[in-house]
Amino acid sequence: MSDRPKRPPKGRVARLARLGGLSGKLSGQWLGHRVADTFRGAQERATARARLQKESAAQMAETLGTLKGAAMKVGQQVALAARNLDLPEDVQAALDRVHDQAEPVPFDEIVADIESELGRPLAQSFSHVEPTPLGTASLGQAHAALLPDGRPVVVKVLHRGIETSVASDLAAIKAMFVGSRVLRRDRAELDAMFGEIRERLEEELDYLQEAANIEAFRAVYGADPRVALPVVHPSHSTERLLTMDRVPGVPLAAFVETASPAARQRAGRTLGQLVHEQVFLHRMLHADPHPGNFLFSPDGTVGLLDFGCVKHLDEYWIATYAHAGLALLDDDRAAYLQACRDMGSWVGDDPDAGELLWALGREIGVPFRTPGYTAGGPDDRLWERMQPIGRRMLLFPEIRGVPAQVMLHRTIGGVYAMLRDLKASTDWGAMLRPTALAAIARAEGRPVSAVCLHEER
After folding, report:
1. Residues in CB range of 352: below 8 A, 6 or more apart
2. H-type helices in 40-181, by residue range?
3. Which stretch of 11-20, 40-49, 200-209, 286-295 has the lowest confidence by average pLDDT?
4. Residue 425 and residue 269: Cα distance in Å, rounded?
5. Cα 157 to the chain's mean position, in Å?
6. Of 171, 235, 170, 176, whose CA–CA distance to 201 is shortest?
7. Tell me, what's the pLDDT at 132?
8. pLDDT tens per residue, range 31-44
9. What are phi and psi of 295, to 5 degrees?
10. Is residue 273 within 8 Å of residue 261, measured between CB atoms?
11. Phi-psi region of 350 (alpha: psi -120 to 50; beta: other; left: phi over 0)
């Protein structure tokens, strides 16, 4: 362990003051809105509330976008998790402007941190470390480097003092969201959502946990020709420092530009298979689906990066989720609504809420019920069809986003966005059915059939 002093991130007090000030301002705006509502008709109240929600989201996005350190990461995580709450499109668009980017840490500080963590001069650990970072995010910074034997690696260095600011920043941002009523959900649902975010953030602050996550994925996919994974170097890693082999490939945008149609389809098919396998077979989800965390080789091999955020799914809950997926595939309304109740997504008995849930489910099921469905193709209007239903769901507090869905739906949405870019086309239902059946069989103590293994590998 390092004995160097850890200083808090720059401007932490000012950052919390800014968050607290905005929280008070938004709460005041909400109270003013409630007072004004007493003089408005029903339609005018709805219009005013929608306008206030959009304006509050824009103010929060602007403030969160200027922050640094843990506050930036927390803001990004909340914005991504909010996608699970079916917010109006313009409100979600405002929150989506929060990005996980930061100013680079000076290289001499990076060198000092590496030497302190490993307890030896830099030249004894690496023959070269590239001064210009590969990337700087809110929690850490990555550099290309060479081991003494010339092996190319990536070195991730956690920002100094970042651990001390996560709890306070999360509390301040939570107060801001609750006070502004932007998410328009009850306190219990918001507490669950922020609790899930806190757990994942705490894991991301421990690089030894990330190393363990990589090893867990290598145990499953290490020999899989569809996938490229990093190899951890334990001798050059600590809780605050992670050294891994470089994963081959290019970012998604470059791959889409240069790859053959067959390679694009293979990559898309692999992404689809991976998410089904992780959810239903392994219950271990690579839950940071930003395109920057994937690399693509010319033959369509998919490289996975950044294992700081890995969600482990409960065996019995995911079996219920599998029942919901199969009900959508089979167009079975009763079975789907029962699964929604069993998962905790529907906690009331309003038939209009049930109709909305089924309307949303039927739209989600279209790609799975349509063999050869092309994500991002001319007939793919899934997001457009879901958005008006999501806006109406805000009227029913009994429709809830449960904690287990926060990272799960974030991942599915991120992978779907990449599939759209790839114009991936396959029989998605044929991917869903065997893996979902396997999840149900395992939860019921029955043997999992070999049919669950995809043939196209």
Report:
1. 396
2. 42-65, 69-81, 89-95, 107-118, 122-125, 162-180
3. 11-20
4. 8
5. 21
6. 170
7. 97
8. 444 445 444 455 66
9. -125, 150
10. no
11. beta
